[in-house]
Write a structure and sequence with these properties.
By secondary structure, the protein is α/β, with parallel strands linked by helices. It contains 15 helices and 15 strands. A 6-stranded parallel sheet has the order 5-4-1-13-14-15, with helices on both faces. It has a 5-stranded parallel sheet with strand order 7-6-8-9-12, sandwiched between helices. Strands 2-3 form a two-stranded antiparallel sheet. The longest helix has 19 residues. The relative contact order is 0.15. The structure holds magnesium ion (MG).
């Protein structure tokens, strides 16, 4: 318990208080720092099917997360969310998770499927790009710094009759984006009718599959200018993830972005040659896990108030997920220092382990998973603080 009270002073939100505490606790502080440095582990949580189902917390997730903070609400164990979902900027997702889960979550702790799109800024910063998916895909890309970004809703509205089924889509009668961005304004602002689209980004799960497949086929086979025949080269196409299915609020799995990719690719390859070229991000791609390692190290340096160069590599990183082919497969491909924990609150519900992608540990809920981790890590250093 002594350790906990010292941590409160050292890493509390009001860092000034640690200065005021001054020399009186200097010795204790160094002991505390030494002990925290011995916690060389981090945790990555999947969200859908582990932390939340829809917007409802599951598996004791609020209680599990609270164990990673000290009594004053300051972070003491580096952890992040590693989700293939998205559709809103990381800062807004962090606020939303903070509200639902009752702990203070930093934008840095939210890694979404589309987060790696930031790395493509150099290539497309000033190029016309079209974004696809639920939520606010164009806002996500604008916040990453892309300057000529249109959602597929906005882009499609610039072309008369591009979607022959539009008159039958009564849910499209309200289009809030048109209040500020009328088609004629967008046509002029971005030269939509003459500027080629250089890339399309599927940021989150597409909403209107029939329109999106139609318009993406138009963009991709025309070389970036719908209605102007067939042209080369195919604009680049990026997917934030490739999940075939995921666990949402409905009792059984829903079709994800991977299902949309299969539909688009199958249709495109029937109407066009050469076949569709694309790049998919998200788990199980090992680059996602490598990137998470870097962020966890940054969080460790934030917790210990040290420069990143002074921080040791984490010895173990736990991935807690519900989807064997995405979460567990990704850990297996990445290897050390990752350790996989499969919960039974989402896609996976079986009694034993998964046959094709067996996890290092199978457990019922995320709270049990966190208890297991804290017990194991405490026993490693011989201090019972959890
Ligand atoms: Mg999941």
């Amino acid at each position: 318990m002594r350790f906990l009270s010292v941590m409160k002073v050292t890493f509390g939100r009001t860092r000034v208080s640690s200065r005021l505490a001054g020399l009186v606790i200097a010795r204790s502080l160094s002991n505390a720092t030494l002990q925290s440095e011995r916690y060389d582990f981090g945790i990555a949580f999947d969200i859908d099917g582990v932390i939340l189902r829809g917007r409802t917390p599951i598996g004791g997730s609020p209680e599990a997360l609270r164990k990673l903070y000290d009594d004053s609400g300051s972070l003491r164990i580096p952890y992040l969310f590693l989700t293939n979902g998205g559709g809103i900027p990381e800062s807004r997702r962090a606020q939303e998770l903070t509200r639902i889960l009752g702990v203070d979550i930093l934008p840095l702790q939210v890694v979404q499927g589309h987060s790696p799109f930031k790395n493509l800024l150099n290539r497309y910063e000033n190029e016309l790009i079209v974004t696809v998916g639920k939520g606010e895909p164009a806002t996500v890309m604008s916040e990453y710094g892309f300057r000529k970004t249109l959602s597929i809703d906005e882009y499609s509205s610039c072309f008369n009759d591009i979607d022959p089924l539009a008159p039958y889509k009564h849910w499209f009668t309200e289009q809030p984006f048109l209040k500020n961005n009328r088609p004629e304004v967008m046509q002029t602002k971005y030269n939509v009718l003459s500027d080629k689209v250089k890339a399309a980004f599927v940021v989150s799960d597409p909403v209107d599959w029939s329109r999106d497949i139609q318009v993406l086929c138009d963009i991709l086979q025309s070389g970036g200018l719908p209605g102007k025949g067939v042209g080369d080269p195919q604009p680049a196409l990026y997917f934030a993830a490739d999940d075939l299915e995921y666990q949402a609020a409905f009792p059984c799995e829903r079709l994800g972005m991977g299902a949309f990719r299969i539909a688009l690719e199958s249709i495109y390859n029937r109407i066009h040659h050469p076949p569709l070229k694309y790049t998919s991000y998200g788990k199980p791609n090992p680059s996602v896990f490598k990137n998470a390692e870097v962020i966890l190290k940054q969080l460790q340096s934030y917790i210990l108030e040290k420069q990143e160069e002074e921080i040791h590599e984490l010895e173990t990183i736990y991935m807690i997920g519900d989807n064997p082919s995405v979460d567990i497969n990704g850990v297996q491909q990445t290897g050390k220092p990752w350790f996989s924990i499969l919960t039974r609150t989402g896609v996976f519900r079986e009694n034993g382990n998964h046959a094709q992608f067996p996890a290092d540990l199978v457990i019922d809920t995320v709270e049990e998973a966190v208890d297991y981790i804290l017990r194991k890590e405490s026993s490693k250093i011989g201090v019972t603080i959890f």
